[in-house]
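Input.
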Amino acid sequence: AVAKRVEELGAGMKLPSTDKDAIRQTIEEVLGNDNYKSAAKEISKGFKCCGGVKAAREYLEGLYTSMEKDI
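Output.
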């Protein structure tokens, strides 16, 4: 699901196969194309605006804690 979303947002590509040449070509395409880098930077900005990893952790811990109370 994450890889699909990364591709949808233009920050990466789905591997066409697990063949080493296909993997190499995909890596070279992603690293050699500035459009992927730009898209990844935009995604990063979104994460930072939302509080990043720390805020995500705190949110998930809060959900877990509230679920424990319901059990």
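The mean pLDDT is 91.
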